[in-house]
Amino acid sequence: MILQPATRGADAELVNASWTEPEAFAELFDRYAGMLYRYVSKRLGPEPAEDLVGETFLVAFSRRRSYDLAYPDARPWLFGILTKLISRHHRSEAARYRALLRAPVEHTIESPADRVAAGVSAQAVRGELAGALASLSAKDRDVLLLIAWGDLTYVEVAQALGIPVGTVRSRLNRGRRKVRAALGDTNPMAEEE
Amino acid sequence: MDDLKLLRDFGARLEHEPPATLVRQRERLLRGRPARRWWATWWTAGLVAVATAVAVVVPTMLLAGGRPVAVPPAGARNVDVGGAMNILLVGSDSVEGENVAYGPQRARQPDGGGRRADSIIILHVPEDRGAVTAVSVPRDSIVRIQACAGDPARVDMINSTYDQDGGLTCLRQTLQKLTGLTFKHTIEVDFTGFKGVVDALGGVQLTLSRPVDDRRAKLKLPAGKVTLDGEAALGWMRSRAQGDGSDIARIKRQAQLLRAMAKKAQSSALDQNRLKALLSEVRESVRTDLGLEEMAGLAAQLTEARISTTVVPWQPARTDRNRVEWRQPQARELFESLK
Question: What family classification does the UniProt entry report for this protein (chain B) (predicted)?
């Protein structure tokens, strides 16, 4: 799905070219539509994903002249737009996680902490994970999932959301703390950074 | 095990591969006119929020506290809210002072004068009340308008029928002619009048995501929870310094205000005097041929129903690219399905 034609280099060049030649923007679509689709499908499921990806590119296209060409990689920009669009669905997102929370878990082992210690799969603790995600504030969830599911770095998340890197760190820490607490880990030494 | 690793694995299980149909979104991009489409999506969302809020808010306020004020007890009269029907819903925002300019006599007429139709919605309620469809009609739709109330036949924007002398009557007539539908009822909401309603409620509480400082609207509010009186609520709703200053942003604020009002109406125990004041204010700002009971009955049914929303299929008008015209035969087919 993701094609990387060698004809053009960085995303910024495509954005720049699209000023005079709008078709160039479609190449950006070819590069990242699949990636964005996968990300939304995780957060909101496949139904709204297609439309949200389309809207993301339409919004991006309409704002292409305000894109800072100093950033060669357009992913943070696109993820930023997508995150705003996703925020309009935060209720259905939380409902989706809660539904996963209620879904029956196959194995019942002693306690969530033991399962983690035993290195059990994410499948076994999906109820806890879903519950934790549902309970996070929208801001913390955005940061945590951009990193865990969107594969962005701290700096890229900061760019995407227009917030300082320090804020990214604190939101991420808070999010991870809640996830760990849901998994039954209360060890304060596990705190990172 | 690392929590991030667990989350990633969890995500991988939720992930879906992009379908082949994703290419449609690429075409959507290439076909262009992004700003308009983006705008249309927002608009529908805003309109429907307003429509549902109105359908629910008004009866809630009238029946606040479960007190039957000026309302016959339920079942005392056989109310007909059964059967499939279409309701025409118009949200307007009159410009203050204009009513005065038209003179008191005109202002007292049911259609009023000098209002702009901000939102035009056809609410289709099927017989089983299962899934209500809200069809918003772009107000800048270029359509053929018949002569009505002294205005000549012409091709013009649909909301021009409402702005002129004929008001709702002409808009209703024009839409009935264009769509082939019959509107059993009409609901008109004047947002200006909501100022009085807000005051009668004793103010409403809103949560603002950022502080407001709009000198032109003489409005200065901190971020967070604020209580607004009628004047401030209206100013906030109308302020152009809010959001991106667009129509969509404004419609969203209308919906937000309505929700806040519904909340207040439900939560506050109103004394008799306040309730009377509230009722008269509501009568000022909502005009409908639906009786109080019918409205309450309908609202009760609508709160249960699934509401799907759509816009009349349109395309940029050939005569003026900044306006829209209905796309045929899709628009005709849509209306056919609502009969």
Answer: Belongs to the LytR/CpsA/Psr (LCP) family.
